[in-house]
Protein: GntR family transcriptional regulator
Amino acid sequence: MANTDDDRRPKYQRIADSLREAIQSGEYGPGDRLPGENDLMATYGVARMTARQALSVLRDEGVAEARKGAGVFVRAFRPLRRRGIQRLSQERWGNGRSIWSADIEDRALEVDQVTVSEEVAPDRIGAVLDLAEDETVCVRRRRFVLDGKPVLLSTSYLPASVVAGSAITQEDTGPGGTYARLAELGYKPAHFREEIRSRMPSKDEAAQLGMSAGTPVVLVCRTAFTDEGRPVEINEMTLDAASYILEYDFDA
Amino acid sequence: MANTDDDRRPKYQRIADSLREAIQSGEYGPGDRLPGENDLMATYGVARMTARQALSVLRDEGVAEARKGAGVFVRAFRPLRRRGIQRLSQERWGNGRSIWSADIEDRALEVDQVTVSEEVAPDRIGAVLDLAEDETVCVRRRRFVLDGKPVLLSTSYLPASVVAGSAITQEDTGPGGTYARLAELGYKPAHFREEIRSRMPSKDEAAQLGMSAGTPVVLVCRTAFTDEGRPVEINEMTLDAASYILEYDFDA
Structure:
């Protein structure tokens, strides 16, 4: 779209726009150092404060990140591709693999901060799982760390009455994970619903995911249903948006 | 998760956390006015600056928004539910409805800022559509406005050689829209890929979508393929994250 208002942009915005264009065109690649305040002052003939504002626009957008004492760098973006539909196909968890292995290619994924507990279901969970008041759920919390960087927080809720005594109540759910165990219990997941939102992280989430400023989280809420339509698991996930591309493939 | 470090949180953070809990529990609903600086000073015995910081935490997270002269309010969140798979089913566009009508229920959706032009394909588009260098695309830009609020920017790219002379090159594509016309031209969309990312908006995007501070955009890039696997359209969409829930339903 033609923009004849260009000259009305404040100076710091014009500098930020031209740096952004240089990044989008590939002149500065992921991880490259951007011109510093002194460079921008010399190139554009502006005051230090203007140069600083220009760089802070790119930081606020999440396009660039500051490294203490080293300068401002183009955010290195090598996201995971999370294929929503293929990764949950039964052939995958049906023969003992983790659904996560679909996403990580050759990269090192670790799971940490695993906790398993039995808790009264939060209202929103009880409503979807159709539980009686005060009925308990098995709650599985964990964090996924890729190449040393935390990328995802996950909390699963399953009706305690369904999973009692199974490996789902243990830290290690065994080959094929929770979905393979649910199948053995007679509650094979046949249908999934994923709901996706995005917002800024809370301070806690930003700390747990080691996130840079100016980066949102993506929330994925997955509900697994048996072929009779009974919901048997809700998994609430919080993803560092800079670490993921979500992909869904489907027919018309 | 037990948090024994609670007492180490700064005061403004403790106040923000307790307001957030009150919002999440429903004590303050969407659109409700939150306690003001004076209320927080009295309730918590803190200085004005601390009260102000507490409210700004919630604004930065996008949980609350300030209205000039009126106070700080819980962000009214009545998002659109965008059902990624059902909305693109052939029965829908196959009989003359717009795919968008699947999402809007009883609400008033307007399309504005429609432009149609023929342009040399940007590199990333030419690469996916498998075009020769300098080959042109038909570019359809528009903005979607729901209940008076802009919610989505959309830019579609189609090979000019495919759509030349059809209603796709007009502002009004006719009943069933672009996909119905592609079918008539012998390029019926049979398969879709949607890729989803999230980041903070640029200043331009925030202005075009009338977004509040602390709100990210969701990017959806959809590619439509014929049943021979030929890509015939790329649609790059920019969504106000506070206005949408994306939903995908699929079988194991």
Q: What stands out?
A: The two ends of chain A are 32 Å apart (CA to CA). DSSP finds eight helices and ten strands in chain A. Chain A touches chain B through 48 residues (CB under 8 Å).
